[in-house]
Amino acid sequence: MTGVHLFGLAGAALVGCGVYGLLMAPGALGRILAFNILGGGVFLIFGVVARRGAGAGFGADPVPQALVITGIVVAFCATALAAALLVRLSAVDAEVARDGEKEKET
Amino acid sequence: MSLLFDAVLCLLLLAGALGVVATGAARAAVIAFIGYGLLLGLAWVRLAAVDVALTEIAIGSGISGVVLLRCVRALPATPKAPAPNPLLRPLAAMVSIAIAVALGAAVLALPEPAPSRAADVATALPATDLGNPVTGVLLVFRALDTLLEKVVLLLSLVGVWALSRDPACRGRPDPLSLEPAPAPSAFLARVLAPVGVLVGLYLLWAGADHPGGAFQSGAVLAAMGLLLVMGDQIRIPATQNRGLRLMLLAGPFGFLAVGFAGWATAGVFLGYPPGAEKAVIIAVEVAITLSIAVTLGLIVLGPPAGEERS
Amino acid sequence: MSALLVLAITAPLLGLVPLLLLGPRTGERAALGMLAVNVAITAGIAERVAQGGRALGYAVGGFAPPLGVGLRADGFAAAMMLMAALVLLFTGLFAMTGPGDMTRKVNARGSAGMPSTFFILLLSLACALNLAFLAQDLFTLYVALELLTFAAVPLVCLEGKAGQLSAALTYLLFALFGSVLYLLGVVLIYGLFGTLDIAHLAGLMAHGAGGWTAAAALALMSAGLMAKAALFPLHLWLPPAHSGAPPAASAVLSAVVIKAPLFLLVRLWSDLAPLPLAQVAGPVFAVCGAAAIVFCGVVALAQERLKLLIAYSTAAQIGYLCLMFPLAASSDGPWSALAWTGGTLHLVSHALSKAAMFLAAGLIAETMGHDRLSGLGGVGRLAPVSVAAFGLGGLSLMGLPPSGGFVAKVMLLTSALQQGSWWIATVVLVGGLLAGGYVLRVVVIALQHPDSDLPDVRECRWRALIALALAFGAMLVGFMPLSPLPFLEIGRPLTWESVLP
């Protein structure tokens, strides 16, 4: 067992954590976080693949490294869009609830 | 010794992830997530992927963390969504553990010696004059992915803006806080921002030959921009500002223009002019860093509040 | 190397510049212009593929796969691209600010002239779809799928209503879950083979290399694509998202957006996976497809709102493609080729007919002010062209001649009967009956005598003609001969030989 194997297993465990979070999270924010944990695990496994492919003078295969960088940015975009949607949704919901109460009062 | 370090790091990572997933309180979960991101960055260093480590810390943990913290602050304290049936918990746990075990087995079963493109990259890299192979893959060998990922970034900003109350998506995003900035944060902004901008520019400059590059640099510059906004040193720009939009477009469309120019100079789309590869690549990096910094900052600031009435 | 492939991906993006820098009217015209250019480019690609009888290729940056990223257009990809480009152009025309729109008083924003954000998203969709059809690298395809998601999700909530926002959030979470699963499969594939180029991988996998890990990777990627395509049982996000969006957005979401993951599913299992593995996976897909056809078909029958009915019908119709997998993976030469042609033709004809139906439903709802089926009695008098477009589009869903749906379903049925798959044949017929039920229900309501006085409005005629044109397109596909189409077979099996210099 080497460090690389350990990180591979950790990546697999992170994927498991993420799946659990997606299944059991109570709200959308929890699911967004779980999606990030899941993604982190997948990227870490890709990192293990890269490290195993070290050679030609490089400490790790550069192609998976570049793909992970692209992947992290895409995951950030997804997180940001989901968070913005969630904020807007809760604002609109609050408005609807306020209007409903006003109607009750009158 | 290093094996022990790796083992402790892996356990901490796992504990962090479990903390994020198991914590009921939204704010605590996000803070645990930021810590988890920093640990993940450390793991990337251990995997000899310093470029990825910088990206993970700057974007995966840093800017994502800011976005999520802002999101927590805007949400009501008590979520209305009911928690899933607790009886399902053992079932969900079993499914997750089964997936993790199967995946772990798959990772351990990967073939030895590992297939790799490192040799191909090493052969092709000298022609580009770049020292950092990851930058080579991002900007030369797989430039199409990188170009389109810039479009993804732009689109996610368009998606955030589309959530504005104003159908034309105009005006300025809401300020980060309603009160004027306290004196210490204005001071901090004035002192820290120049240093941060220098760090950002260094990361950009170094990226050609050493770890670093457009994304890491763009994230640092975006953070400095946000710091200046928080310290009331600069005003949040209005989304319809022509100059702002040019900065947003500079990266993806500057890159695209270089791609088209490749037809004239190298005979192929996204080819670089022979002899001047490095200069053109650095020019592309400068343009995309500018766009990344502006886009990331605006994504954090959120949708515009609509046209101001004067 | 054909530069047209690069232009197909980049030309739609160029339309974003005027939209973001110039005023909405100029930007909108430029966007429509670029959508027309996109049709011309894709038609050019299809024409060259047909003329040359072989696939077109391009190595981006001059780096051939596996180091670089390759683009490749075969008959199947060219047909899908042309279909998607036409649907996007027609929808763009439907959504533009029309001659009378500036003066006409309209209550809903979706009914006359869409905001310029809509056109930004439409152009991005064009780029994402062309990339999904052309890219030959599994990671570039991941980027294409993400581009597609980021262009599609904001379409759902353009009006910012609470229901739309929550539908968009659910859609986004499903799509992201799908992307992560897909990416996990890609990671395992790279770990096994050190390349992500489909043609290279097909060669490596043909001899059974990779073992169970390769099978698991393909399964993960397929599950991710199923979540993005809303394939049963991962379809729950689709009805609220597709029915809540403005009509022009619903049309592109239902007609073309879900077609990209379905196309990739076909690529994965007919071009990448080795035949023995495809024979194992085929029945699993077919069971999911059959469940989709029957379950979502029955739910569609029970709907009270027109747009929800059409959305459930989309979830049901996706199932037909999945029935194709076991039939096409058999070793029974001509009959498996017939099933493959049927499945792929179904993708094209469903796109045209579903776009027509969603646009028509939008016009009907605009005319009446609502889309409750119980209140639509007699709408045929107010919106005759829209109702005709709906009915003609419905022919394809029911599988009645003359329509593309008829040809596709007869091909699947024939192949199933010849191969002795009685249960698949039964599902094809039952699905046709269910579709007949829900389409005719709407048509009968529209043509009956109105219960109360109809409002004094008329449908927007030129928009209705656009919906009708799409419905005629779906009918035209129905005049194909009932045999494997040679054009769709051009460029299979995948290889870079004679495609790249």
- Helix/strand class of chain A: mainly alpha
CA(first)-CA(last) distance of chain B:
66 Å
Low-confidence regions of chain B: none
Helical proportion of chain B, percent range: 55-70%
Q: Tell me which CATH architecture of chain A applies here.
A: Orthogonal Bundle
Q: Please count the helical segments of chain B.
A: 11
Shape of chain A: elongated
Keywords (chain A): Cell membrane, Membrane, Transmembrane, Transmembrane helix
GO cellular component, one term (chain A): plasma membrane
Family (chain A): Belongs to the CPA3 antiporters (TC 2.A.63) subunit C family.
Membrane topology (chain A): Multi-pass membrane protein
Short characterization:
With 106 residues, chain A is mainly α. Chain A contains three helices and no strands.
Describe this structure in words.
The complex is a heterotrimer of chains A (106), B (310) and C (501). Chain A has a single domain (3-105), classed as Helix Hairpins (Orthogonal Bundle), CATH 1.10.287. Chain A is 86% helix and 0% strand. Chain A is built from 3 helices and no strands. Chain A is elongated and about 75 Å long. With 310 residues, chain B is an all-alpha fold. Chain B has 11 helices and no strands. The radius of gyration of chain B is 22 Å and the shape is globular. Chain C has one domain. Helix content of chain C is 72%, strand content 2%. Chain C has a two-stranded antiparallel ribbon. The radius of gyration of chain C is 22 Å and the shape is globular. The N and C termini of chain C lie close together (7 Å).
Question: What key phrases describe this protein's structure?
Answer:
heterotrimer, A: 106 residues, mainly alpha, Helix Hairpins, 3 helices, 86% helix, B: 310 residues, 2 domains
List the helices and strands and how they pair.
The complex is a heterotrimer of chains A (106), B (310) and C (501).
Chain A: H1 3-24, H2 28-52, H3 62-105
Chain B: H1 2-22, H2 26-46, H3 50-74, H4 88-108, H5 118-124, H6 133-141, H7 143-161, H8 183-206, H9 214-230, H10 242-265, H11 277-301
Chain C: H1 3-14, H2 16-21, H3 24-52, E1 56-59, E2 70-73, H4 75-95, H5 116-134, H6 138-156, H7 162-193, H8 198-205, H9 211-229, H10 238-244, H11 247-257, H12 259-272, H13 275-301, H14 306-328, H15 333-368, H16 379-382, H17 384-398, H18 404-418, H19 422-447, H20 461-476, H21 486-489
Antiparallel strand pairs in C: 1-2
Membrane topology (chain A): Multi-pass membrane protein
Organism (chain A): Xanthobacter autotrophicus
Family (chain A): Belongs to the CPA3 antiporters (TC 2.A.63) subunit C family.
